[in-house]
Design goal:
2 domains, 7 helices, Arc Repressor Mutant, subunit A, 8 strands, 6-stranded antiparallel sheet, Chorismate lyase, alpha+beta, two-stranded antiparallel ribbon
């Protein structure tokens, strides 16, 4: 699947910023330089830079260039705990099995929820989490590549997707809903549920640096897990 040129430029720029190669206040290559590097029209580069500036990752200064923006303090306002931490807090042992880790094209409904165009690439993962060997959560996640360019290279048996994303895409906002749902056969089998047994489904959309970063469907066996929280 062909990745749009502007998206490749955004990913390249973000990779340098997240690796610490470019720090706050550093000047990034000019638009003509980027156009030559990627062999694209300048308007393609302009779109990539414009979108990163809108996400407050870059600052464009007329006559001077484009610079790495200072971090936004709002990123620390929201915290999501990793299921691995929750299991360990209760004295359990966490383990995980990765069922899928790949790139997919955004379907219409998902694209609308994430504010991207239908067919744009997304990173897709399906991870089954266990507590003391018993499955307690099936996590299906779609991640916008610009938010976490290295997502597909991670070993999610060693750290959870939440742990990785909290590191590279600090949270600014979370939308979620919780409902009781009968799972599809594949989900029921993964969670080792009897036929007709319901799940708790937590559907969560996260935002980072002013843009939607991803969507996750977290399936919990209703009789093995309960969701709690406080404000």
């Amino acid at each position: 699947m062909q990745v749009p040129a502007y998206q490749r430029i955004k990913t390249w720029l973000l990779t340098h910023i997240e690796a610490g190669e470019w720090r706050e206040g550093d000047r990034i290559p000019s638009e003509p330089e980027l156009a030559r590097r990627f062999k694209v029209a300048r308007m393609t580069v302009n779109r990539a830079v414009r979108e990163l500036a809108a996400a407050h990752l870059l600052v464009r200064t007329p006559g001077s260039g484009t610079f790495v923006a200072p971090p936004r303090h709002e990123a620390t306002l929201v915290e999501i705990r990793s299921i691995a931490d929750e299991i360990r807090q209760h004295g359990g042992v966490h383990s995980a099995v990765v069922h899928q880790l790949t790139e997919v094209a955004a379907e219409k409904a998902l694209a609308a929820e994430l504010g991207i165009s239908e067919g744009e690439p997304l990173f897709h993962s399906v991870v089954l989490h266990h507590a003391n060997g018993v499955p307690v959560q099936l996590e299906e996640r779609w991640v916008v590549p610009a938010a976490a360019p290295g997502y597909l290279e991670q070993d999610f048996t060693q750290l959870t997707p939440s742990e990785y994303l909290m590191r590279v895409a600090p949270l600014a906002r979370v939308d979620y809903r919780i409902e009781a749902r009968l799972p599809a056969d594949a989900t029921r089998e993964a969670l080792k549920l009897a036929g007709g047994e319901p799940c708790l489904l937590l559907h969560r959309r996260t935002f980072s640096r002013g843009l939607a970063a991803g969507v996750a469907d977290l399936w919990y066996p209703g009789h093995r897990y309960r969701l709690t929280g406080h404000l």
